[in-house]
Amino acid sequence: MPKMHRLDPAAPWVQITTTPADWKAADPTLLAAMLGELHLIRAFEETVLDLAGEGLVHGPAHSSIGQEGGAVGSIVGLRSTDAINGSHRGHHQFLAKAITHVSSGELDLANLVSEPIQTVLQRTLAEILGLAQGYCAGRGGSMHLQWFEAGALGTNAIVGGGVPLGAGNAWAQKHSGTSDITLSYFGDGAVNIGSVLETMNLAAAWKLPFAFMIENNLYAVSTSVQEATAEPRLSGRGLGFAIPSWRVDGMDPLAVHLAMRQAGEVMRSGGGPAVVELEVYRFFHQNGAYPGSAFGYRSKEEEASWRARDPLERVAKEMIALGLIDEAGVASVREQAQAAMTDAAAQLTEADPESAGKRRIRTELWPDTDFVDVGLRGDTSELAEARTLDPLHYDGELERKKFVEAVAAVMDRRMDQDERIVLMGEDIHRLGGGTNGATKGLTKRYPDRVLGTPISENAFAGLGGGMALDGRFRPVVEFMYPDFLWVAADQVFNQIGKARHMFGGVNPVPLVLRTKVAMGSGYGSQHLMDPAGIFATSPGWRIVAPSTAADYIGLMNAALALQDPVLVIEHVDLYGQADEVPAGDLDYQLPFGKAGIRRAGNDVTVISYLSMVRHSLEAVEQTGIDAEVIDLRWLDAASLDWDTLGESIRKTNAVLIVEQGARGTSYGGWLADEIQRRFFDWLDQPIERVTGGEASPSISRVLERAAIARTEEVVAGLERVRAGMGER
Predict the structure, then answer these.
(1) pTM score, two decimals?
(2) CA torsion, points 492, 495, 496, 502, in degrees to nearest 10?
């Protein structure tokens, strides 16, 4: 028989319950704040359900009734500079944080609703109703509540989606020299989501002051925890990452507060993250005012047993036993909270003149429909004072520099000038500058700002997003290959790309995402995509694609100055290419939204980017066609140089769009559609396109070459245009 040794987890895992002595020792001010917040949240949620029942809530109404104890107990002791985020069921967390912020955690139960608290209730209700006075100007609604001033980073409709963002906020707190902490709330379903588990690993490895707050309400929509996992004690997830973990009765707000105080001591002292599992119960179904038993997945007996443990009644009972309040006082707290919500609803609704006895939203409170796209991205005013230089028109001293040397050099310069810049990605801190030398020398110069990450694109992309939203740092995230964006698609598109607009159009998201196109390198179908087409059709992102080292310097400088997320696409074919760049100048920006005319001509407008610009120029010389070759540089619709394109198209009356990658994810497909909408009257023939094949490139050298476009394919495209000229 082999010898067997018991292995114990590297971190403690405890369950906390309160005793009568704990209640007796509790600060009366704390208990009063708990009772007041619990009743304010309960009255708020009841009002939301009433309005939803009248058809006045557009979209879901995910009630937190029954779960208030976990939110209040964990948040009532936080600072305003501490932060929280949460999931789609997050009204209680948002309100607990906002009320604690405006009241400093002290509530007078005889005069419960101050003017600031009334404002919080009304603005939160307005947001859920989609009205302009809401915290996100009506765009967030029930599932996207954000108020940075109070430390509410934003609730999230994607299960587990907000967790990496919260970790990014915690990174910023730690590296700004504070002792602040961030709490991220999510449900039992999210503990099995990759982004959560990846973030647990990353937060533990980097010792972030970050709490994974698991609201275990026993059900997803109708699937029970026992069905979904073999270990229903969900705080056990933390042990695999050496994270100290607590399990606590969320129906007992004081027990939650005590667990949070212990977890907070670990996080504030530099001990790294914590996991806190709150055992709670939603009294209603996933959405709306019916109990789960009405849908058959819970029994009425189970629901009754949990209702008997209502956190509002628990706190009231304990306070009465301690002589801190009486039954009449508790009733008064309830009445004050209900009156506040009656008033809040009255400010937002009015009698419906077309339906007797019914209400409608006050029509003047809706957002103006002209606001629909406002704030999708910034206005680029941050670039107004920039020193710009277009290498195409530069006549000063030049020096030779390889493209990849320019990549490392300009980042070195910016990191030296701006201490906010932080790089992160897989292997960027090793191998003499990552897998291609793009970060050469940076680790030695900035060891605390070049972060080699675990293989976890979801976690570190989202962490970068959280850092960007925090605003104290400017993250530069590298995806080793663009195909990996699919692993992190939620963070890239649902979170980072949508964040500014979704939360009201105000908060900037200054993040740069670097990646490289590697077609021709033999890495196969899962490493060789061109991401331009995907990002061009996804809201919120700006895209730059340099074809020369000189352009790279100017475009990266612009990207690092913008207050929007920017995708910087590179191409491995360019890395070793020696270009001429302005001598000793790493500080200029390329003019915003300005394309480059690489060759003037009259017969056809050839539009391209990255390495295909060179292939296009070669093809033009081989065919002898008098083509105008335009290097886009800026690819997204809001930044693209429509003036230069339009002037050229009006001159040539023909267009050839050239790109290298697969037809299905093509950038040119979108661009062709937009060009024909804008310039149809000047086109004498259909827009021609050069792309790769339908399939992604294969490993086989010959099949890879057959799948992508290079000079020969551009020649063929130009010949098709020439044939079209003959048919005019």
Answers:
(1) 0.95
(2) 140
